[in-house]
Each structure stands twice: as structure tokens, then as C-alpha cells.
Write a structure and sequence with these properties.
This protein has 169 residues and is of the alpha/beta class. 30% of the residues lie in helices and 20% in strands. It contains five helices and seven strands. A four-stranded mixed beta sheet has the order 1-5-6-7, with helices on one face. Strand 5, helix 5 and strand 6 form a beta-alpha-beta unit. Helix 4 runs parallel beside helix 5. The two termini are 39 Å apart.
Length: 169
């Protein structure tokens, strides 16, 4: 048919990676040590240990947990570690830091375990827009892993991409 519109992108060998597709489903929660500080300032070990013992840890079953302190208090490292010991049987994943640190850690694990064999010597485009909170570090980590594997790497959409890398011949 003359004048037929052909989708050249669909026919190309270009492989699109959308980091949003790797976003792990699950509830994200913050465990804030501020609530357990004496007068909002310091950890009193005996009181803190009792509060940790009495806390309902099963509330974190299967959740992604960010452990941090929103107060300017100086919190000893062992306090965070003690919380991690109690969270381990319940939490699906935990980190020290805020929700941004949690997302970064989740993607780091995902991308470190990503099988890159299907991208070997292929042209790849990394999709840029997402509706889920994909951390900027995930894009850096992905291109770092793909460089040297993929034949070429672009960023954006097939119709308007930015070339980033091309393997030397």
C-alpha cells in the first residue's frame, strides 16, 4: 500500500529499558527514632531497650523500612543496629536513611542482580519518564553496568533520544 505508515521503532532491534518496570511493589515505611528519645534529645539505653522490646515489630511484616531520626539528636550507631536486629524477621528490606535512601538501596540490589545478557551488543534506550520514584542513582548505576555490554545506549524516547554511549569497534 502506497503511503502506508510504518513504525520503524517497532521494527528496529532497539531494546527499551524502563526502570519503572523494576520498581518493587510493597509498602514503604519510616521508622523514626525521634519517638524513642528521652525528652526528644538522647537515647537512654535502659528505656530505649524496653521500648524496643515492647514495640509491635510484626507491623513491619513484608514492608520496606527506612530507619532514621528526624531530630537533631546524636544517636549512637548501636541504636540503629538494635532496631535492625528486631526488624530483620519481619521487614522485606531495610536501610539507614530516609525514603530516598530506601529507593536507592532497592534499585541497587535490583540492578546488581540484573541479567545483562539480552543487552549484549544490542542498541539500548533507557526510558526517562516514570510515574514511580525511580532514584537518579539507578540511571547512573544502570548505564555503568550496560556500558561495554550494549552496542549503544541512548536516553529518552525512541522518537527523541539523547545518545550517551557507543561501543568502540
Amino acid at each position: 500500500m502506497e503511503g502506508e505508515i510504518v513504525n520503524r521503532v517497532a521494527k528496529s532491534p532497539l531494546i527499551t529499558i524502563d526502570l519503572e518496570d523494576y520498581y518493587p511493589a510493597g509498602e514503604r515505611v519510616i521508622l523514626d527514632l525521634k519517638e524513642w528519645l528521652w525528652q526528644g534529645l538522647v537515647i537512654r539505653e535502659k528505656d530505649f531497650r524496653q521500648a524496643v522490646k515492647d514495640h509491635s515489630w510484626s507491623d513491619y511484616e513484608g514492608k520496606f523500612v527506612a530507619i532514621y531520626c528526624s531530630s537533631d539528636a546524636v544517636v549512637p550507631t548501636w541504636a540503629y543496629m538494635l532496631l535492625a536486629v528486631h526488624l530483620k524477621p519481619y521487614a522485606r528490606h531495610m536501610v539507614f536513611g530516609d525514603l530516598s535512601a530506601l529507593e536507592t538501596s532497592l534499585y541497587q540490589d535490583i540492578l546488581n542482580n540484573l541479567d545483562l545478557s539480552r543487552f549484549k551488543d544490542q542498541p539500548v534506550i533507557i526510558k526517562g519518564c516514570s510515574n514511580k520514584p525511580v532514584p537518579g542513582n539507578a540511571y547512573i548505576q544502570l548505564i555503568s553496568r550496560l556500558e561495554g555490554v550494549a552496542r549503544s545506549i541512548q536516553f529518552g524516547e525512541a522518537c527523541s533520544s539523547v545518545p550517551l554511549y557507543k561501543k568502540k569497534k
